[in-house]
Specification:
alpha/beta; 48% helix
Length: 362
C-alpha cells in the first residue's frame, strides 16, 4: 500500500487533517493542497494514484480542477473522488459527467471513506498491472516475430527456387510439395508482419507521417506483392484506382491497410473470382473500396469483424487460416487518419470494405 500516492485537496486545513486521520495506518503516501491552483501544480509534478477533491474552494474550484485534470493527457487517467458538503443531485451528476469516479458527502463516515479509497486504489493497481502485462506481451510478440521473420523468409525463398528448377515437373508430387511449403511460409510471413505492425503500433513506435502521395502507386505495390497469391488461386486481382489519385495520408499505413484488406479478400474468394480496389471522389475525400466475389460474411459475424480474432475460426476457400489480427490492425491504422473501415457483405456473393482518405489534388 505504501506505493500508492494520494493527493487530498481542500481549502480548510481541518478538513485535510480529518481525511488524513481517517487514512492513518494505511501506509498510503499522502500529499496535500489548500487550493485548486496548488492541486494542479502538484498533479503536474507527481503521478498520483488518487485525488480526493473538495468542490467549494476560492479561486479555481473543484469542478475546474476536475475539468483541467481530464483534458490534460498526462493527468486524464488519475481517479478523482469528490469529497464535498454540496449535496445537490445536479452537482453530483455534473462531477460524475466530468469524470469523477466517486462522490462522498461531508461530514463523512471514517469507515466509508476508507473503503471507498481502498476500492479505488485496488482498481488502480489492477489497471496498472494489466497495462504492464500488455506492454510485456506486445514487446514479447514483437521480439518473437522479428526473430522468426528471417528463417521463415529463407524457407519461402528456398521453396520459390525449388519451383523454378527445370527438373521439377509442374503438377508433379515434388512441385506440389514446394507449392505447399511456399504457401505455408507466405502465410507465416504475413502473420509475422501483422504481429510486428501490431506490436509497433501499441508500443507507440509507429509515427504518423502524413504527406501527399498517389494512391494508385501504393495500390500497385500491394498488387505486385499479392499477385503470386492471386495467380496461385486463379483469382483476378485488379487495381482500378486512377493514376494521379492524390491523397493526404501516411503511405506506409495505407499500404498496410490495403495489403490486409486485399489479402483477406483473396483468402475468401474462389478460383475464377475477382478482387479489385477502386477509389471514388466524394466531396473533399476519396472513398477507397476493396471488393471481392468471395464467399461473403454472415450478418452476425460482421459486428465482430474488426475485433482481434474476428475471423479466426473461418477457413479460406483453400483452407487458409488467419489470426483475425489483420482487420483489427487495419481499423487501428485507419483511426490514425480519423476514419474507420466499414464492411458490407452478402453470403455467397461477396464483400465490400471501404474507408475514406483526405483528397489532395495533384
Amino acid at each position: 500500500m505504501a506505493d500508492f500516492k494520494l493527493l487530498i485537496v481542500d481549502d480548510l486545513a481541518e478538513n485535510l487533517q480529518a481525511i488524513a486521520a481517517s487514512l492513518e495506518g494505511t501506509g498510503y503516501d499522502m500529499a496535500f493542497a489548500l487550493s485548486g491552483e496548488e492541486a494542479l501544480e502538484k498533479c503536474a509534478a507527481t503521478d498520483f494514484d488518487l485525488v480526493m477533491l473538495d468542490l467549494m474552494m476560492p479561486g479555481i474550484d473543484g469542478m475546474e480542477v476536475l475539468y483541467r485534470l481530464r483534458i490534460n493527457p498526462s493527468t486524464a487517467d488519475i481517479p478523482v473522488v469528490i469529497v464535498s458538503a454540496k449535496r445537490e443531485l445536479d452537482i453530483n451528476l455534473q462531477a460524475l459527467e466530468l469524470g469523477a469516479v466517486d462522490y462522498l458527502a461531508k461530514p463523512f463516515d471514517k469507515r466509508e471513506l476508507l473503503l471507498r479509497v481502498r476500492n479505488q486504489l485496488e482498481l488502480r493497481g489492477t489497471r496498472k498491472a494489466l497495462e504492464e502485462a500488455n506492454r510485456v506481451k506486445d514487446r514479447f510478440l514483437s521480439l518473437l516475430a522479428h526473430d522468426l521473420k528471417a528463417p521463415l523468409g529463407l524457407v519461402f525463398q528456398q521453396a520459390a527456387q525449388g519451383l523454378k528448377q527445370t527438373d521439377v515437373p509442374e503438377g508433379g508430387a515434388l512441385h506440389q510439395r514446394f507449392e505447399a511449403i511456399q504457401k505455408s511460409a507466405q502465410g507465416g510471413l504475413d502473420l509475422i508482419q501483422q504481429l510486428l505492425d501490431w506490436g509497433r503500433l501499441h508500443q507507440g513506435n509507429v509515427p504518423f507521417r502524413p504527406r501527399r502521395f498517389d494512391l494508385f502507386e501504393v495500390a500497385e505495390r500491394v498488387k505486385r506483392y499479392l499477385e503470386d497469391a492471386a495467380q496461385n488461386k486463379g483469382v483476378c486481382l485488379e487495381n482500378r484506382i486512377a493514376r494521379g489519385s492524390g491523397v493526404w495520408a501516411d503511405p506506409e499505413m495505407v499500404e498496410a491497410i490495403l495489403r490486409n484488406l486485399i489479402g483477406n479478400s483473396l483468402k475468401y474468394t474462389e478460383q475464377g473470382g475477382q478482387v479489385f480496389v477502386c477509389a471514388t471522389s466524394v466531396g473533399p475525400n476519396l472513398m477507397v473500396e476493396v471488393l471481392d466475389q468471395g464467399c461473403g460474411i454472415p450478418p452476425e459475424r460482421l459486428k465482430q469483424l474488426f475485433l482481434p480474432g474476428g475471423l479466426n475460426s473461418t477457413e479460406g476457400t483453400e483452407g487458409e487460416r488467419g489470426s483475425g489480427l489483420g482487420l483489427s490492425l487495419c481499423q487501428a491504422l485507419a483511426a490514425q487518419h480519423h476514419t474507420r473501415i466499414q464492411a458490407e457483405s452478402t453470403p455467397g456473393e461477396g464483400s465490400r470494405f471501404y474507408f475514406s482518405l483526405a483528397q489532395e489534388s495533384a
